[in-house]
Amino acid sequence: MKPISSFVNRIILGDSVAAMGQMPPESVDFIATDPPYLVHYTSRDGRSIANDTTDEWLRPACAGMYRVLKPDRFLLCFYAWNRVDTFYAAWKAAGFHAVGHLVWVKRYASSERYVGYSHESAYLLAKGHPQRPDSILRDVLEWRYTGNTLHPTQKPVMALAPPIAAFTRPGEIVLDPFVGSGTTAVAAQSLGRRYIGIDIEPKYAICAQNRLLRKRG
User: Fold this and answer.
1) Where are the domains of the chain?
2) What is the per-residue pLDDT across 136-174, written as a single tens digit (0 to 9) for each?
3) pLDDT tens per residue, range 27-78
4) Cα 94 vs. chain centroid, distance in angstroms?
5) Is 201's pLDDT higher than 70?
6) How far apart are the C-alpha atoms of 111 and 215, rounded to whole Å?
7) What are phi and psi of 66, to 5 degrees?
8) 101: pLDDT strictly greater than 80
9) Could you tell me where the beta strands, DSSP code E, fall in the chain?
10) Beta partners for residue 102, in sequence order
């Protein structure tokens, strides 16, 4: 096991379960993540997501997140609405309990089938019993289209910034075990928080690191 300082303000290439297993327990202040949705996703230009076709990693990842999160702190986790049973069971098995649900409203539909899918959502989950935040975040938020130029499911920085600001203080550590193109880390850095990002795909780990280096410059 390594000291948490060896992970801080880094993008780590590798399996998130293995990487979190090297972190000390109860060492991060907040987790915000957008994991694979288990939906066999393929974007319009043919890009796919690693580990999106199996849920074998989900319960170990949730258990790892619970282990490294400090007591009485939060996990914000995006999920697929049609896989909510699988995700909720994994969160509960790890020890988390739901305390809120955030919805970001889009001005466009990502896809259309029976309805036009025009929102993103994430559960706010607690480990223990966190204190009431100083500033209460509304559970319906705005969304800005990124163009998905860096990642097939790229989230906008403006969507992650409000919950990071609400549930952490400057200098605290924000972890994203499925960091993708680095949006969570960029949002954390912009707010004066420290970050840890992990991704299994080299091209996205490099992309995330480059974004953060540009922000520092």
Assistant:
1) 4-216
2) 999 999 998 887 787 777 799 999 999 999 999 999 999
3) 999 999 999 987 655 667 777 677 777 889 999 999 999 999 999 999 999 9
4) 17
5) yes
6) 32
7) -60, -40
8) yes
9) 10-13, 28-33, 69-78, 97-105, 111-112, 116-117, 119-127, 140-142, 173-176, 194-199
10) 122
Torsion of CA 114, 116, 119, 125, to 10 degrees: 0
Fold of 4-216: Rossmann fold (3.40.50)
Predicted pLDDT of residue 109: 78
DSSP state at residue 25: T
What is the rounded radius of gyration, in angstroms, for the C-alpha atoms of the chain? 16
The tokens of 37 are what? Answer: 């949705």
- CA separation for the pair 29, 90 (Å, rounded): 21
Q: Are 77 and 38 within 8 A, CB to CB?
A: no
Distance, CA of 161 to CA of 188 (rounded, Å): 7
Strand extents, DSSP E, 34-95: 69-78
Rounded to an integer, what distance in angstroms lies between the CA atom of residue 19 and that of residue 121? 26
Please say whether the beta carbons of 105 and 76 come within 8 A. no
Nearby residues of 146 by Cβ (< 8 Å), 6 or more positions away: 154, 155, 156
Give the whole-angstrom CA distance, residue 179 versus residue 128: 25
Neighbours of 6 (CB within 10 A): 10
CA-to-CA distance for 44 and 47, rounded, in angstroms? 7
Between CA 107 and CA 120 the distance in angstroms is 11
